[in-house]
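OP here, attaching both records as promised.
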Amino acid sequence: MLAWASLAPLRLALRLASLLACVLAWQWASTNHLNLGLVTFQNVPPPAEVLRAGWDLLQSPLLLKHLGASLARVFAGFAAAALAGIALGLLIGRSRWAEDVLLPPLEMLRPIPAVAWIPLAILMFPSSEMSMIFITFTGALFPILLNTVHGVEHVDARLVASARSLGSGKLSVFAEVILPGAAPSIVTGLAIGMGTAWFCLVTAEMISGQFGIGYYTWASYTIQNYADIVVGMLVIGLFGMGSSALIKRAGHACMPWQRQEKEKS
């Protein structure tokens, strides 16, 4: 919403019209029980039914417990992933030795889906809460790590050489050239990582569940409350989009030189 507020009226209207068109198409397909053979909308709840389920959830005293549990898990896993991903990414991006030693096992772990980690997470951690945080951590880690590596490796070598020729030491080059140069990629990785952490939330809260939006979504499926499933999905989508947008805004606020370059261009 913060990003949309700064758009020109025509672009904002176009985006809102796009959303409205999707909702209308959903309403038409679900009310007419559209069956395309490969895809069917016979059991998909229409938007009006989802809206009623969402209103019921807003009035429920469990809403704050669900949101509080999910926010705590997502942000704990994301914070740990941000620290580990940025640190490892900077190290791998600047050290050939670290790239040869650390990157191969990380690349092997990267394609493993979050749901495959559930049995091992239960075995590794004494509490279900730590297991759920670990699942969100694995989801957020690799986008942050790879974007950080990419940003460090694509810093202009001429800038590094110029700084060294002016007498800058390794620490100064790292702090004043490498980090600012890699910062846009790091911010992109953080935004993607936050979205992926929310993406893994349902998987994480399948482990144990009593509270959480992911648990609410999964429990709604088990008892066949189809409208509540969509409500849970939309809540996860909204919070994921909002938190990613906030990270982007905070990142851009910390990179004033980017705004200056855009204004010059």
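Record two, same layout:
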Amino acid sequence: MMRMGVDLGGTKIELVALGEDGSELFRKRVATPKEYQGTLNAIVALVNEAETAVGCEGTLGIGIPGVISPYTGLVKNANSTWINGHPLDKDLGVLLGREVRVANDANCFAVSEAVDGAAAGKGVVFGAILGTGCGAGVALYGRVHGGGNGIGGEWGHNPLPWMRPDEFNSTECFCGNKDCIETFVSGTGFVRDYKAHGGSADTGAEIMALVDAGDRLANEAFDRYLDRLARAFAHVINMLDPDAIVLGGGMSNVQAIYSRLPAILPRYVLGKECRTPVVKNLYGCSSGVRGAAWLWEKR
């Protein structure tokens, strides 16, 4: 059985075809057309090319930066705005003559790492992408947990837990609310906080280089970042108690998170005990497209 996954992004569309054992059979990416019909045509062309190259038909899953509303059947919340308001799965299904499964790209990330990635074999996996923004997804026994409203895993748009007095009303999020977790624990939030306290570095990597060099402002910023990340994950652990938390995005490359965060989590988790593994992803930027393929789960 061949499974194909597509990562539909704002600038590129990538397709990967996986064998039954998860081995990669085909991969290609193309630029994303900035209109709906062109996007459909590009995906169909990639599918046809993959099936010709491999010599067989396969299933198809799509990861998108949004969700399909369970009420209307139309895409919503996508920053690739030209797909909003369209029945993407149904339209592709008609063009390809088969069922097409669509899920949020962060949920695809969680599924990828749960099926054969850093959390392989774990029952309940929380995948958090700490990059320019802050996305998250939930995989239950290798399958997406989208939820009744289609927004399962939208952890980054809850308020930062246990806020300090100086944290209240200190940030604004694109979603329209203040003090969202995303504005504190994304890579962008890390840099914002560092600069607000007098720093001048422009990236998380630059700040971490200063941390390693013993810079006081950088170390204080990273201490605040770790504490906020611990508070944010403690809420997840208190509600979902996942078997593993897998990190993606640029901040997942900060190795000090994995050595220092476990000691902070018990301060905020109910009962003051916590051994939830927090691990780096296995597949990096390929995890989302692989997870889209795994929307057709193993039988």
